[in-house]
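Think of the structure tokens as a kind of shorthand, similar to the way a musician reads notation: each symbol stands for something richer, in this case the local conformation of the backbone. In the example below we present two proteins back to back. Begin with the first one, reading the sequence and then the tokens, and try to describe in your own words what changes along the chain.
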Amino acid sequence: MKNSVQIANPIYDVVLKFLFEELSIAKLFLEAVLGYEIEELTIRPQEKPTIDNQKQKNKYKDLNTSLQRALQMSIFRLDFLAKIRTEEGTKTVMLELQKESLPNDTMRFRGYLGKLYSDKEAYETIAEHLKYPKKIGIPVIGIYILGSGLPIIKEVPILYVRNVLEDYTTKQEIKVRDYFVQSLSHESFMISVPALSKYKRTELEQLLSIFDQSNKKNSDRYILEISKEEIPEKYHKFIDRLYKAAQDPEIRKGMEELDVIYEEIVDLMHYKKHYEQERNLREQAEKRAEESLLREAKALLEAEASKQIQQKEQRKREEEQQKREEEQQKREEEQRKREEEQRKREELEIRFIKLLYAQNMPIEEIAMQLNVEVEQIIEVVNSHLK
């Protein structure tokens, strides 16, 4: 590589922090990204979590807490308060610069933004177009340097997300800026490091090549080798400062320590994945066992219910059978009564016929008196009187 220079790899937090501690370089970088001149720039106080090495032996005791704490360390952030000159005039903005070195959950980025939005110092007082001065939130612009790139949009090195106001009905864009809208929304720039090696079309893309990981020097991941001629001259101070960082043993030690931390993070993530897999398998086994017990219990309940239904139906059949037998007995008893009554009537008729016949009443007259056929009278006479 012609006129190559070996620089410290700014993907490491300790290097990026060293680079931007030079406020003139931070200003130049932010102007390159924003595309606006910055009139004033200050770095806001920033606390960064650290890992307590005394607790490493117990790092798995509370896995989620350890992992969340470690993942926070994989995100580098700086907050700036800036006055920028735009087409609409000078305005104050909050610049949230975040860099991640490992694939991260967007919730952590949102969490940092939430803290910035709720910061009591992130407000300003305005009086323009208002009857009385009003305290409003300072507009926020996010700049994200993504070491692992975007998950879906992989080929775009710099993604600009801007706020566009439009009339909902007419779809006409509204050019006027409203402080209320600006307080509740923000523009952002997303720099995908893996996509930087393919493009050097603009001065910004050429400047961002300082993050291009394809420029690593052999197997030394802490050093990038880049051509100074490929970087616009006004950005050469970046190369000079990163070259200085590459010569600093304390910075190299810091990069090595960060690698240890990242290895801890990967270790925790793998452990968590393994732990969650085992937990899922255990939960699935418990679920299957529970489902098996439920099926057995359901089968027993269904069998018991079926048995009770069968017993109920059997009792119902027995009761119906008993009822039929009782009705049959009742019919037979009624039949016997009828037969007994019939026999008694016949005996009474025979005695009456005997009486009348003994009084020498003619057979025809007896039949008339009893309202029966003559043949019946004759039959009785022949059977019982001769």
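Once you have a description of the first chain, move to the second and do the same.
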Amino acid sequence: MESSICKRAWRRLICQMHLDLGSRRECLIVNGLGRSGTTWVGNILQSLGGYRSLFEPFFPAYVPSATPLGYFPYFGDSVASEEQVQIANQILSGRMHGKWVDRDNGFGIYRRRLIKDIRSSYMLPWLKQQMSGLKLIIVVRDPVSVYHSWLKLGWIGNRARAKEIFALHSLIENESFCRNYPEWAEYGRGFSTSVDFDAFLFDWFTSILIPLIELDSKDYVLLDYDALKADPVSTLKPILRAIGESPISDEGVIQAAGRNSSTHFLANTKSTKYVLNSGERDCAERAASFFVNTSLESLFSSKMDVLLSAAKVQRGGGKLR
């Protein structure tokens, strides 16, 4: 017991014994819905590129200084406060430290910076405005697998932690979001107290769609988690080129991708394909018919096909906004 405590204390100390000499004007964010593989992707890139990693620095429960930004912030056409701008710039420029944000770092000197985060999807366009040199990787995983992971972790149905798990409840109270996406806000109010599949699907759709709609396509790279898992080399190499990484050998990519992420909570659980029940299939059909449009990004569209197949429904119409 004492040995375990000492190891944890030593690890926390080592995580904070580093220097961040990276540019104050450049940063890489790996973003996606929780349990979409963002930590795994971040760990791979950190291993290959020597980044200092900031782990979920926009999480007020563990980073109190981020509290003024709130959970799942969205700015849209609203004006952020001076305090919110200062906090965002502090994080992007690497002037944020602590045992939570530095949990994946070791002793050393870092000249590049990577932020792994699952609560900043809705403010990625705003963050891009704060730092022109910001690079974005948006990780997308099929929604049925993500939902299954949420179920296993007890996130679905968890009312006590709803504010930090679900974006829905924050968004439908956000004036800018309601002004820019009135139909989405109205749709979300239909299950405003939900902590189940309806709320999850709202988050899955909106967390991907808002960056795709509000960012220029040259400002982000979409990464297919399922493709990365099946073929790391073919999937990751174009991503590395897109963010300006130096060429990496196939063996190097395979070795980096072969390590479990630091949030591999479910390592000892049996992996099975989740089958939606009839109520969940109804939810999926409802969400698909509301959100889906055939002109969406091909990767997003392919993930939708997984959901539609699981729901046993055909691709719907629907408008983006």
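Compare your description with these statements about the second chain. Residues 10-141+216-258 form a domain with the Rossmann fold fold (CATH 3.40.50.300).
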